[in-house]
Amino acid sequence: MKQFTILLALTFLVLSCGQTEPMKEKESSQKEEKFQPISNEILESSVIYEANIRQYSPEGTLEAFTKDIPQLKELGVKVIWLMPIYPISMKNRKATGELSIEDIEDPKEKEKYLGSYYAISDYTAVNPNFGTKKDFDQLVQTAHDNGMYVILDWVANHTGWDHEWIKTNPDYFQKDKEGNVTDPMNPETGESWGWSDVAHLNYENKELWEAMSEEMLYWVKNHNIDGFRCDVAGNVTTDFWNFVVPKLKAEKPVFMLAESEDKDLFYEAFDMGYNWEGHHIMNEIAQGEKTVADWDAYIAKIDTTYQKDDYLMSFVTNHDENSWNGTVKERMGDAAETFLALTYTLPGMPLIYSGQEYDMDHRLKFFEKDTIPKSKSNVWPLLEKLGALKNTEIALHGAKKAADYQRISTTQDENVLAFSRDKKNDELLFIANMSTDKQSFQVDVSGDFINAMTDEDLSLKADQEMNLEAWDYLILIKK
Fold first, then answer.
1. Which of 269, 287, 313, 345 could make a disulfide contact with 430, Cβ separation 3.0–4.6 Å?
2. How far, CA to CA in Å, does 333 sit from each of 94, 229, 316, 362?
3. Contacts of 106 (CB under 8 A, 6+ apart)
4. How many domains does the chain have?
5. pLDDT grade for 33, boundaries at 50, 70 and 90
6. Residue 32 pLDDT > 50, yes or no?
7. Is there a contact between 312 and 351 (Cβ–Cβ < 8 Å)?
8. What is the rounded distance in angstroms from the CA atom of residue 470 to the CA atom of residue 362?
9. Is the pLDDT assigned to residue 452 strictly greater than 90?
């Protein structure tokens, strides 16, 4: 009897082992079925995260960032934008805003200057400081397993001075009268932008179009990425973007983000642009230099400038703003939370920049190793609430089929910004005191609402007196 029991157990074990692999395959297949190609339906409710790999962790590696991808779901992140992950040129490498490493004699001092991410020596390699292509593939897979999409920062306007094209294909580059390759020049003044660590590409050469297309296609075909954020996209001819994007989309659906507000880019090539002008107005309102009237004028301009299905990325910080113009606290002070909430309630897509979620009040070094803080305080739970709203409220849809934006009048329109967002009978209100003084006012709205930040019920009447302290705001969901 004992031998029979053992035999029965062994038989069960063998059968179980035989079933293990098919079960794993089934689970894997189900996981793949759940992950859908990027689409406008997904982008309508997306939050985008800008990952600065070098500064994200003490290690500064792809692997270290990958470990944290699952917790980005807590913030409602659906798109991860990786700042350039490629090798950086050594020649003319920036050490500071003014000096290159050629200006520094001490070898040990030179070693600490890692250069600009945007001075690329090889478009199809991974910076060894960040890791390997295997590490990169693991990052993409982890993102996909968590329902997120990965886009690469693409620098089509210029290369680093070590790029092989300078030797093999010098006609790909802009040249001066003496035939020397130049750094990027301001087309209006003919003077250098000061980007001395990069060489300016020449898109009058159609052979460059084919070569650059192949470099971009490499990452889509071989590493399953979901799109690109294109650096200074407006400095590259629109015809090139209209040429390359259909090639990318022939491989798989991709999401294209332009660092530009040039409306011509949205006709065919790009899905989303930068809300630079709106961002600068936010800074200026926070600093007392502009008012709600300037914001209203900007929104009116957007309505007349762009087509219905064009949309922009809104932000209170990004890598440029943080390193060169100041932290959120420096630029916005007590108004920081109000403008962060505004970026989530506007049409378009809100951005989180590495460190912002950890209340970072530090200008990250751009050419050297630095590290963001990793202590959750006030901003993380705020981003959780805002991210959940963006992910779930139809009235906050912000892509090609965005919810409508309608300004609501108040009795203090010079200081109070109030607007509604609505789509498919879902409505949400944003009301904010955009000043340093307490405001008492009436708002032309009535109905029953839920305060999205406190979950409390609130009823409004058109003649009701409302009070908001300096920089206070309300996000109200219509019942």
1. 345
2. 31, 29, 12, 14
3. none
4. 1
5. low
6. no
7. no
8. 25
9. yes
Give the pLDDT score at 96.
87
Instruction: Name the residue range of residue 108's domain.
Output: 33-403
Residue 19 lies in a domain: no
> Cα separations (Å) of 366 from 4, 99, 136?
71, 13, 22
Q: Is the pLDDT of residue 289 over 50?
A: yes
Q: How far apart are CA 4 and CA 10, in angstroms?
A: 10
Give the mean pLDDT of the chain: 93
Does residue 197 lie in a domain region?
yes
Residue 10: is its pLDDT beyond 50?
no
In sequence order, the 6+-apart residues with CB closer than 8 A to the CB of 343 are: 314, 315, 316, 350, 351
Determine the Cα–Cα distance for residues 200 and 198; give it in Å rounded to an integer.
7
C-alpha torsion sign, points 51, 56, 60, 65: negative
pLDDT band, residue 29 (cuts 50/70/90)? very low
23 located within any domain: no
Inter-residue contact 274 to 258 (CB < 8 Å): yes
pLDDT by residue (tens digit) across 337-373? 999 999 999 999 999 999 999 999 999 999 999 999 9
Domain assignment of residue 440, yes or no: no
The residues, ordered by sequence, that sit 6+ positions from 214 with a Cβ below 8 Å of its Cβ are: none
CATH number at residue 136: 3.20.20.80
pLDDT of the residue at 191: 87
Q: How many CB atoms lie within 10 A of CB 58?
A: 11
Determine contact, residues 353/379, Cβ cutoff 8 Å: no
Of 14-28, 54-68, 171-185, 262-276, minimum mean pLDDT range:
14-28
Angle, in degrees to the nearest 10, between helices 238-251 and 206-223? 30
Look up the pTM and report it.
0.92
Say which residues have a Cβ less than 8 Å from residue 435's Cβ, sequence separation at least 6.
415, 470, 471
pLDDT at 106 exceeding the cut of 80: yes
Mean pLDDT on 264-287: 97
